[in-house]
Amino acid sequence: MTVGSRKATVEDFRERGFDRIVVLSGEGRGIKYSGPFYNSGYNDGREFARWVSNHIYGMPLYITIPFSRPEGFPRDQVQIPFEYSGVNSYYKGWIDGVLSVDNTDLNGFYWSYESCLQTTSYDGAHVTKEFIQYMSNYIRNHDQELIWIPTIGDRTMDQIKTFCAIPTLAGYFNHVFVQPHYYQTTKLSDGSDYTFQELVRRVGWMASKGLSIEMEADNSIIGEKSNCAYCKSTQGTWKDDHFKEKVGCDENPTPETEEECINRACDYYRAITEVNPSAFSTKAYYFDTDLRVIDRVRSKCPDW
Predict the structure, then answer these.
(1) What is the 3-state secondary structure (H, E, C) of 223-234?
(2) Number of structural domains the chain divides into
(3) Among residues 216, 141, 146, 204, which one has the least CA distance to residue 179?
């Protein structure tokens, strides 16, 4: 993370009102993977946790549980319980490796698999509810929190209610922040417009289920190319995990498209205000790699 040309510090986050940091790398694709075994997970997690403790300190943080290998496949089986028949998974090893490093700032873990379809028959990775339950229990038994930031993508509300398992799984997490994907696309999977009122519908659904929200923006707002990998992917069907930026900022940032994107980012708080601000006392933020994105959005909507 940066603030312009310089590296961001914990104080930069604190000055902008943040009280926790999530340390991640996509769904794990940018993190070392040594093999699908407990010892490999332990060593990888310990190494990553040491790096975190040497670079980020002075603010509570969540360390990612990397779901994917660099090439995209799951790091271990997720069709079986997290801990089974005396054999421990890579994911348990990762958690144990992280916990082996003394870090008083560690507040918990972030489950990095973002698919809202997981634990359903529509999930390509075949994650089971038992796996999530065992992982959740294990982490909480160590007095740590577990959070999740799933995406609903460009699905229609009917598809969200029919296919997404977010409300079913929410009880296994201390916090669930839903990614509305409103900033990333102006079209829904059925071809209809992703309008402000459609965003309000989703925010209302989140509030009714006791879920929170991830606020979304990217480097396009400050006139730079986005570092968001999925924004550079080709548009797929509603079942796909990757979507193309439709607002127009990412490909050719101009003052006009920057303003358009700032307005779209501001719509998140406008939607929250229209639904019920007290339902979203805790929010997560995605803002690409530069904290100036936060500053630029808040110059137009200070409460963002």
Answers:
(1) CCCCCCHHHECC
(2) 1
(3) 216
